[in-house]
Amino acid sequence: MMQRSGALARLVFVDLIGSVIWFPIWWYTKGLTKFISWCYEGLLYRYKQYAFSVWIKNFFVPMYSQYDWVGRLISVGMRFFVILGRGIALIVEALAYLFLVLCWCLIPPLALMLALQNMYAGVV
Q1: Residue-range domain boundaries for the chain
Q2: 37-71 tens-digit pLDDT
Q3: What is the reported pTM?
Q4: Any idea of the CA torsion for 73, 79, 82, 84, to the nearest 10 degrees?
């Protein structure tokens, strides 16, 4: 009988209450670090998918072997706008990841505030 009550006390005090106390510490340390790492890897993946180094390396190489001055001019203009568009897309994606990190940081305080607000509304 004592073993069951000891196991129940351990379950309530250590596992349940300990998890509640440990959650914000984990959320803003290990969890945030892992989430930022995930965002960085996603942004790095998109950078590689856009192949900026290939586009920049071939910036002045004429497209379709058009070596006349019009072909070179069209090739440079086309590559300029492609690099510009991909750069804008990468910046937008970086801002989206930044927004996700800010949301990650704001979710626990907002959830706590809403829970307290609902508890207070139920009392009054």
Answers
A1: 24-123
A2: 999 999 999 999 999 889 999 888 888 878 888 88
A3: 0.78
A4: -90
- Residues with Cβ < 8 Å from 43, sequence gap 6 or more? 90, 93, 94, 97
- pLDDT tier at 2 (50, 70, 90 boundaries)? low
